[in-house]
Amino acid sequence: MANPLHGSGPLRSRNASSSDEIQLRIDPVHGDLDEEIDGLHSRVRLLKGVAQEINAEAKFQNDFLSQLQMTLIKAQAGVKHNMRRMNKSIIQKGSNHVLHVVLFALFCFFVVYLLSKFSRR
């Protein structure tokens, strides 16, 4: 098995006199490392821009959701307030209105039933 510190590519390592040091020799045939580094640098810069755009979009959507949540809380409070007012009104004036609504619904159901029964014939 080959030693991973000794390569055969453009970068080759040699054992130095001390065990803490590694010397690299750049092969002149593969001397386009600066171009590779510049290419990687431009790609990293592009990825950084994309990440910043994603961050900005996430913040925008988070703010939008917070505003939507506040709007829903306000609407829920309004509905709850109106339900209380309606319940107080029904209790104070009696439940005749509810009885009228129930009778009207039964009447409508009966009319629809009769219409559907006679329309089949």
Automatic annotation (TrEMBL):
Protein name in UniProt: t-SNARE coiled-coil homology domain-containing protein
Compartments (UniProt record): Endoplasmic reticulum membrane; Golgi apparatus membrane
PROSITE patterns given in the database record: T_SNARE
Biological processes annotated in GO: protein transport
Keyword flag Transmembrane helix: yes
Domain of life: Eukaryota
CDD domains noted in UniProt: SNARE_Qc
All residue ranges annotated as the T-SNARE coiled-coil homology domain in the record: 27-89
Family of the protein in this entry: Belongs to the BET1 family.
Entry keyword annotation includes Protein transport: yes
Membrane-protein topology: Single-pass type IV membrane protein
InterPro entries for this protein: T_SNARE_dom (IPR000727)
